[in-house]
Amino acid sequence: MIINRDFYIRKLLSKRENGKVKIITGIRRCGKSFLLFNLYKDLLLKEGVKENNIIEIALDRKEYIKYRNPNLLYEYIMSKINHNEQFYVFIDEIQMSYKIKNQDVNEKYIPEEDKELLYTTFYDILNDLMSFENIDVYVTGSNSKMLSKDIVTNFRDRGSEITVFPLSFTEYCSVSDMEKMDALEEYMMYGGMPLSVIEKDELEKKKYLLSLHNNVFVKDITERYNLKDDVLLSSLIDILYSSVGSLTNTHKLANTAESVMKIKSSDNTIKKYLDYLEDAFLFRSAKRYDIKGKRYFGTNLKYYATDIGLRNAKLNFRQYERSHLMENIIYNELIIKGYSVDIGIVEVTRKIEDRNVQSQHEIDFIVNNGSNKIYIQSSLNVDTEEKRQQEIFSLKRSGDFYKKIVVLYGNQKPVYDEHGILYIGIIPFIFSMENILN
Fold first, then answer.
1. Fewest C-beta in 10 Å: which of 94, 178, 254, 309?
2. What's the pTM?
């Protein structure tokens, strides 16, 4: 089965031959390589690009190992091109390229703060390739720290990043033969990792997802950062997966690791591990924003799993709480569509027994769309008036007139209440998201 990723193909086409290196990042095995080396390549060939004018290098494959040396990589690419035709260079898993010391420079004359300049890296090679008008460069990578966080510094604003995710729910439905409600149940259990979606046997799905998580992601992080073992890392992942949609901080996580897992750790160590997990795209964090005070809170973030199926597999499919999983899916769909998302906090002052008492109330998501904002609550249902009032309490007290939405589990058609708040099922919300939020 071929899963078309038209959303990302359109993004690649919009950046084609723009003079910048196209940096395709995302969690491992989400389909980055297939997107570039199959779907995008096929499109170029159909448009008349000659196959010899597409140079493909996969640094994670044995036949290309020597090109992890950036100098050899550069020589190989230059040997394949001429200056009379347009060429396309595809490099897979660019973070596997290592740096090479420049032997032509006397190190003793280089100031300490400039020692990095002694080395040739893949950044230097890509910057050089971009100086040729007839070379269009595309690279993939599975580590954000080596790529997205360094784009401005190393490519001097000459990089275009495209982040690829596991299949969104709309993509999942495009290859599923199930009714949308059944598809939602399946997606909520097994997520959108492409090979998991293609696999029809449920037992094999579970085995694949668990093996992928432990033997690829955890192993990668352990080896990349030279961790002594993966016990603390694995425990931290379990804690985060168990509490998606819940506020947490490094101190709380360290205490939980010690009390539940009997593993002692410091706040600084936990912070580093959280960075590793985000760099590997396993999780994304969302900050809290004070709506009335118009400021961010420095502590207490929420972490969301990039793929629900990986989350469920790591927890042995034991913790299946629809409310948390639904909130995670909504967050992912918003991020995939390119929206900036925060957690909203509304501070309310009430008089209790002649005293002013302040309390904080949460809005699940603030969606930032340019200068506009949309407030979203995720709720399985509002089947009683008490439950409805509970869900919209913070929305009514935001003190502004931005659009307010309650997303419910299911296929409910959109309706508005007396406050102008929109209630809509998660399925029509996802399928009509851009129209609703714009």
1. 178
2. 0.92
